[in-house]
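Teaching assistant's notes for section 4

Start the section by putting this record on the projector. Ask students to predict, before seeing the second block, whether Indole-3-glycerol phosphate synthase will look compact or extended. Collect guesses on the board.
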Amino acid sequence: MNILDKIIVDKKREVVLKKSIIPVSQLEASVFFEKKTISLSDNLRNSTSGIIAEHKRRSPSKAEINYSFTVEEVTKGYENAGACGISVLTDGKYFGGSLDDLLLARATVNIPLLRKEFIVDEYQILEAKAHGADLILLIAAVLTREEIKSLSEFAKNLGLEVLLEVHNQEELEKSIMPTLDMIGVNNRNLKTFEVSLDFSKQLAAQIPDDFVKVSESGISSIEAINELKPFGYKGFLIGENFMKTDNAGKAATEFISKL
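Reveal the predicted structure now:
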């Protein structure tokens, strides 16, 4: 069993437990539930930088990245830096995140927030909406075509945008459907954790122009972004590169100003 399989087993168990404690009616009563969402896809289409900055404390591949910042410091820093949107990891066991991080981010900034999570159930999409997210991530590697269809339709009905993440041609082919807004290519193989920009380059031509193209993981330099832009990428998700510094907001500001 690889790390991704382990995460999904744990996640399904976690969702069952959460459903038994917090009813859907409580999520729907959230102050954010009727809030109009902010479009990340529009922001990326109209941006010169395309940076989606990530709040991430740790990861299975790197263990601890940074626990010294508050969510408010990081997200405000990213907004001031001119990021198009912010990705907030909400998985606790493997990434050190929580839904509280999403809530604090929403209270701090007024730019699109992505709930970065391993979504396997509609309940998690309701949680995302209730905690102030503007969009969700769906990972093709762990979902069937039918699941991608039903989960993305459910998200769209709540007014959330959908970023679908793929790693290869097969995942891309099973996933393309009108209920997606953005297609992200993860440059990290989730089974081996090997990173290569070639994943993004190879799949670029196969992604229809209806979707905003996003490149994720392993982007740590201006050169990498300039290398990917000719392939039609409008969005670039950067996490560790900013989080591993002493000041994530300052690192993001310097990076974006160079772009």
